Amino acid sequence: MESLIGLVNRIQRACTALGDYGGGDNAFSSLWDALPSVAVVGGQSSGKSSVLESIVGRDFLPRGSGIVTRRPLVLQLHKTDDGQQEYAEFGHIPRRRFTDFGMVRKEIADETDRITGKTKQISPVPIHLSIYSPNVVNLTLIDLPGLTKVAVEGQSETIVEDIENMVQTYVGKPNCIILAVSPANQDIATSDAIKLAREVDPTGERTFGVLTKLDLMDKGTNALDVLEGRAYRLQHPWVGIVNRSQADINKNVDMIYARRKEHEYFATSPEYGHLASKMGSEYLAKLLSKHLEQFIKARIPSITSLINKSIDELESEMDHLGRPIAVDSGAQLYTILELCRAFDKIFKEHLDGGRPGGDRIYGVFDNQLPAALRKLPFDRYLSVQNVRKVVSEADGYQPHLIAPEQGYRRLIEGALNYFRGPAEASVDAVHFVLKELVRKSIGECQELKRFPSLQSAIAAASNESLEKFRDEGRKTIVRLVDMESSYLTVDFFRKLPQEMEHTPQKGGKPEAAPAVDRYGENHFRRIGSNVSSYVNMVSDTLRNTLPKAVVYCQVKEAKQSLLNFFYTQIGKKEGKALAELLDEDPALMERRIQCAKRLELYKKARDEIDSVAWVR
């Protein structure tokens, strides 16, 4: 089981290296949170640091007045074979070994200052320290800032709440074992550590009580009520600790020697002698190590489940971000063409109805074009005054004899010219819709999001092609209008009722009728009405043919050959130009790198946990 604790240590170190050290709201930090650990909690000057040094057997923590621990210290202990040299490694400088524990103390202080500055402020970013020694048990301890009741000079007004909130982010998690350190020379009812532990662990299932400074109690008093669970009961037994005195610290008394003195104290104490086998820092370390082993073993299924879920999420994220791009030009060209096809597929789905947007083209033909045709000023153009004017100008110096054919033609040609405006507006409206669909398709193409340069190139090439399609569409619809003007439908006029100059009389004999005034108002009104009927017939025809021309020249071409010219140009590009098109957003590249590192970490953790679990 020792290898299982070591594995948890390695996963925690790897998480921290990736910036995931718990307290977050995403799947990555939740792995750190799910890993069992032991958090050391206590008020300032409760002897918390001395307990840690006693467990390690080394003097390595910074000392001083006020808040000394200003960042969480994740202390991972690794038991080595007897005779091997002790050394320490920090997570932020992993390849450097410290054999001088005085330098370890200095590095902790320097690394703390690096984040918090030389102030009395705190930071939730942990320091990771691994110690390899034959004198330790496999164990992970998290040293947290000491709880305090008031802010001192140089600290923020919220320091009390800030420390308590930070501590609670660790001890509030169900996978955290709480090591609550309280001094024996103070009433246990006023213990900051016990108060906080009771808030997050009211049943005491996760809390181990540690009583320090037993040797500093007033004469005639003892802590048996606490150690035997009568004053405050926990699920686990209380453990008493006797730390080095300040005089011992000043004399640099060896920690191993201090452990022996502690053992002698309990063995010879009249009050605590019957508890000696369950007292002291060595017993505490073994107790915590054994419990941590059982704690980890019981949670292997839930940890494995979380890891598998996180792997699925990370792989989905990697698929979303896209895999790294190959460096050879052939693979890059293939990638660009695949991305273009992905865009083209979405664009066609918009046109064909698989995605919204294509219906707006139908709206141009069904709403905008008919509305524009209805608004044409034919009433004004075919008014009696204008008809008389046009017919008279067409007659010239020699008035028409029967029907003003030249006047008719001129009126019809002038009226048909009005159709150009709505026809060209339909071309422009469809062009605008197609451009908008290109923009939407680029935005909806997940594969393209990685490559802003390629997005711009595809947009530019698509818009260039759409411009050509619009020019061709405009030429075609203008031809349709001109064709209506170039040859009038003769049968239409042959079927019009003629103005009769004679009317039949009863008895079958014709009777002379009043002569028709070919320059009177009724005559010109009839001409205007006839021209209006013909124009309406042409309008109905164009209403059907213009959409066909627009779709043929613009929509159909966009579906079939939107990127054809772009494909031709791409095929001529060399490696450097292709690489520029696949130049990714730096933020996205960094995101993929981090995602890949996390995915590698989780897969490795899953494999190692599985192997250890099977062996066990």
From TrEMBL:
Gene Ontology biological process terms from the UniProt entry: cell division
Keyword terms: Cell cycle, Cell division, Cytoplasm, Cytoskeleton, GTP-binding, Hydrolase, Microtubule, Motor protein, Nucleotide-binding
Gene Ontology cellular component annotations, sorted alphabetically: membrane; microtubule; phragmoplast
Protein name: Dynamin-related protein 1E
Signal recorded as keyword: no
InterPro entries documented for this protein: Dynamin, Dynamin_GTPase, Dynamin_GTPase_CS, Dynamin_N, Dynamin_stalk, G_DYNAMIN_dom, GED, GED_dom
Pfam families documented for this protein: Dynamin_M (PF01031), Dynamin_N (PF00350), GED (PF02212)
Residue span, GED domain: 524-616
Listed PROSITE patterns: G_DYNAMIN_1, G_DYNAMIN_2, GED
Domain of life: Eukaryota
Organism this protein belongs to: Anisodus acutangulus
A single GO molecular function term of this UniProt record: microtubule binding
All residue ranges annotated as the Dynamin-type G domain in the record: 32-301
